[in-house]
Amino acid sequence: MIAVIDYNMGNLRSVENAFKKAGESVQIVSDPEKVKNFDKILLPGVGAFGDAMNHLEKSGMGDAVIEFAKSGKPLLGICLGMQLLFEKSYEFGEHKGLSLIEGEVVAFDKSRFKTPLKVPHMGWNELFVQKETPLFEGLPKAFYLYFVHSFHAVCDERYVIGKSVYGYEFVSAVCKDNIFGIQPHPEKSHNNGLKIIRNFVEL
User: Fold this and answer.
1) What is the pLDDT of residues 151-194, one digit of tens each?
2) Bridge-partner residues for 163, per DSSP?
3) Side-chain half-sphere exposure of 136, counting CA atoms within 13 A
4) Which residues of 96-117 are buried (b: 16+ CB within 10 A; e: fewer)?
């Protein structure tokens, strides 16, 4: 039983369809009281960090996700959902996150780009696996996924399971115990994305 967290900040149908393609049905859940009943949860997200945290707090879903994470059952955040796992973000001001992983979310620093690049970082890019993880089981050490984002995580190397390069190297996947996060969109990443989804299902 996998729940996709509904807090009005994600393309839930594309996530649901990707799980169906991977051979697994999911339930879209908007009632925080029901979250604890599931074996795994997925936290999607599209949009601004501050708006997302506001929706999570007002709906009660923020506390439900935190409590679920404490249970030791698998949790996966994708795109904005990954960023929300951290302590804070500097997107349109400073906003507190779910604080499930130590670290913060910052804007791409264009001054570090050796050649001019557009932000947001949008399109196919490589993820370079940094350490063995069940989330990337059966995938090569480097593979392409689909990205859309203007901000990225900064955290301790012990949590980093994937990095990518856009102007400079940045963190594109993380893991802390039962908590996983991936910056690109597996649901938009064809076979590689479906493999990640299947791996999450099998955790």
Assistant:
1) 999 999 999 999 999 999 999 999 999 999 999 999 999 999 99
2) 128, 171
3) 25
4) ebbebbebbbeebeeeeeeeee
Helix boundaries (H) for the chain: 12-21, 49-59, 61-70, 80-83, 190-201
Instruction: Say which residue the tokens 């960023």 belong to.
Output: 83
Angstrom distance (rounded) from CA 183 to CA 105: 11
Q: What is the Cα–Cα distance from 184 to 147, expressed in whole angstroms?
A: 4
* Active site members: 79, 185, 187
Q: Tell me, what CATH number does 30's domain have?
A: 3.40.50.880
- The DSSP result for 87-107, as a single string, is EEE-TTS-EE---SEEEEEEE
Q: What is the pLDDT of residue 111?
A: 95
Least confident span in 1-10, 85-94, 155-164: 1-10
Whether residue 2 contacts residue 19, with contact meaning beta carbons closer than 8 Å, is answered with yes
Number of domains in the chain: 1
| pLDDT on residue 11 | 79
